[in-house]
Amino acid sequence: MRGAVLHGPGDVRVEERADARIVLPTDAVIRLSATCVCGSDLWPYRGIEAVSGPSPMGHEYVGVVQEVGSEVRNVKPGQFVVGSFFASDNTCPICRAGYQSSCVEREPVGGLGAQAEYLRVPLADGTLVATPELPPDDLVPDLLAASDVLGTGWFGAVAAQVGPGKTVAVVGDGAVGLLAVLAARHFGAERIIAVSRHEPRQKLAAHYGATHIVTERGDEGVARIKDLTDGLGAHSVIEAVGTQESMMQAIRSTRAGGHVGYVGVAHGVELPGEELFFSHVHLHGGPAPVRRFLPELIDLICRREIDPGRVFDLALPLEQAAEGYRAMDERRAIKVLLNP
Amino acid sequence: MRGAVLHGPGDVRVEERADARIVLPTDAVIRLSATCVCGSDLWPYRGIEAVSGPSPMGHEYVGVVQEVGSEVRNVKPGQFVVGSFFASDNTCPICRAGYQSSCVEREPVGGLGAQAEYLRVPLADGTLVATPELPPDDLVPDLLAASDVLGTGWFGAVAAQVGPGKTVAVVGDGAVGLLAVLAARHFGAERIIAVSRHEPRQKLAAHYGATHIVTERGDEGVARIKDLTDGLGAHSVIEAVGTQESMMQAIRSTRAGGHVGYVGVAHGVELPGEELFFSHVHLHGGPAPVRRFLPELIDLICRREIDPGRVFDLALPLEQAAEGYRAMDERRAIKVLLNP
């Protein structure tokens, strides 16, 4: 089968890979309807995260079940399914508490390479959620967004305890940040401040429900958010970048007693304990337990109540994955969908 | 009036200070019934926190109102009152959200010096809570504990979302940690693991409701707590020390999706962002908004349902404050009560 492989910084190639097949009786193999490039794929692409040898890429996927292992009960061949970037059994105490991305049996899907024609999904019963029926083609990008970026933005909003009457700020205007805006509106936020300096992203943020745009970063951005909140800071701040600057901007933009939901994968971040102590904020985040939200997200998408697929502003054939990486690296595209 | 003053590391003297008096119309002056030495007083006493010149000490207090300013409405002379270490207006949006120790008008009481015969309390209406009647002498230590260490341990348990059916660990066996055990039992925790290597403190922890004692610190302590929790970690962990080691022990002892409540004043702590991200814990804490809890704590004490005053294992006349500091510094006493 064909699949994208990272050979070194800036060097993504679509080439022949071994066919995905059932290895364990709890596996499923799906034929991908669509896949995509994630902001987190850019860390190794840019050489910031080391890779040891050629690495199959991709961890976002939707598709049709081709084959299931002998112990799989919840999905069957022919169904359209959505999964996420950690396979999980969905039965352990951590999963039952809603933290499937820390499942005691979890397996990263990234290593299996979802930017391909087919994908082996471990722990299929716990990991995959089927749509009620085969979705029309125009909903496929929305369902693909649910696989990671929508579920991650959603978790950011849940972790930040977004709710009616609250002022919410979102730090980061990538696909996750934009979909955190969508989630904040869904949860009834009164005001949603998007931090963005890129006009096309500001427009999409406004489409998703942002009521205010702040273009400043760092302490200037903090000051602007305080200006908008009687000097107190926002009730809820969603961090969707993962750098020292963005984390500190998020913490400092939050009022005492407020909530920071952080979902940008932290790189080189060190939080000063004393400042955090006196900030009085709640801090929660991490790799989003997307599985927790998938049934609700699929339902909202199938009823066309949300349109997260608009974050895909470039679609390419899988064979042109290298161009997709370039477009995201150069910020020419928010998020690139790949058609196998 | 007489009061304790820190002149330099290890040098506490009880000497004549200017009388406490009404400065602002929102002030009250109270005659102290009892005061005490706090673990946080040891930071400047040990020279770890710098002081600029002679500093009046103490921020824990109960006593009888002597005089009130012209705008004070909620307390009156003759009442027995309890306050906490930050004066707060109790009306601003931050106070109304329950974070009185981050009140927009807050004033630290520490600078006013509560280890004395009299104390000026700013923002008296927002800060002080009167008991229903003058308490009997034997309840005074319990009420004094409510002023800081009980309220702080209580906040730790609330921040760690302690509740029925949960396994709770408490890192730190000072007065705050021990009273966090008391709070955890009050909130219905199923198992309470106290981290302590000091036998008298272990006994008091058991009296307050600890079901397990762990003597190991750092990663060994983490391993012991994981052993007790099917390898998952505790649901709720209360951190009551404030060092890098204790914070990391608390975070690593918490299961994914669990809650760390941290109330030890952070000194030199840097939290590694990536580890925190993948830990999936909730983190909340800071200077305890004791005012939020005072009405409930006073009620529980007056009905003799809790006995937090047992943390005072040494009582001295105010004039012997220096010996009180020495006893706590050398860990000969858990907490020292001073009688003015």
From TrEMBL, chains A, B:
Residue ranges occupied by any Enoyl reductase (ER) domain in the UniProt entry: 8-338
Residues that span the membrane, as ranges: none
GO molecular function: oxidoreductase activity; zinc ion binding
Family from the record: Belongs to the zinc-containing alcohol dehydrogenase family.
Record InterPro entries: ADH-like_C, ADH-like_N, ADH_Zn_CS, ER, GroES-like_sf, NAD(P)-bd_dom_sf
Cofactor(s) essential for the protein: Zn(2+)
Keywords: Metal-binding, Oxidoreductase, Zinc
Protein name: Threonine dehydrogenase
SUPFAM superfamilies: GroES-like, NAD(P)-binding Rossmann-fold domains
One protein family per Pfam: ADH_N
